[in-house]
Hints:
transmembrane helix, Amino acid ABC transporter, permease protein, 8 helices, mainly alpha, L-cystine transmembrane transporter activity, AA_ABC_transptr_permease_3TM, MetI-like_sf
Amino acid sequence: MLVSNYIEAFLPMIKGAILYTIPLSIISFICGITIGVIVALIRINHSKNPLSNLAKAICQFYISIIRGTPLLVQLFIIFYGLPNIGITLDPFISAIIAFSLSIGAYSSETIRASILAVPKGQWEAGWSIGLTNSDTFIKIIAPQALKIALPTLSNTFIALVKDTSLASVVLVAELFRQAQTIASQNYEFLRVYSQAALIYWIICIGLGYLQTHLEAKFSKHL
């Protein structure tokens, strides 16, 4: 009977992980990294024209407000607050927006620092063989910056997988939301939440092995 109870709890949580937790993590990470790259490039732009300065100020404000407020509060504002001004979003979309903005703000600092860590001589090497600024960045700078940023970005993704549990508060039926539903029905909170923790742990162990493999691969090729 005990084994049956464990299986009955595991299956909905695994389903929630497959259908919501993992897709939510991947989509949010891709969107967040895209935002992070754009913000980082804007901030390292040396142009002094008014539009460039305005863009830098907006990016700085964005980073400050995202890093200075809890992710849970951001989720509540997007899902529960925006309907007050006529903007109602699906729970899954709300979670993607919140997580993407959060990843974008934090990853932008990592990406910016990684780009600046590439020696200036690499830029000069690209220019010396006739490459434009954009070609030099794409072909020479970006791969080296990625190697520098990879460990931190990988850890960010692993942290994001765990942070998706916050999506339960906006009714996304992900892993932890399933655990809450099951626990509210059988009142076996310790067992059910321990099972949820075990699933998160297994996922993160797998991601940790993948991270090690990717870092080793990049070290060989760059």
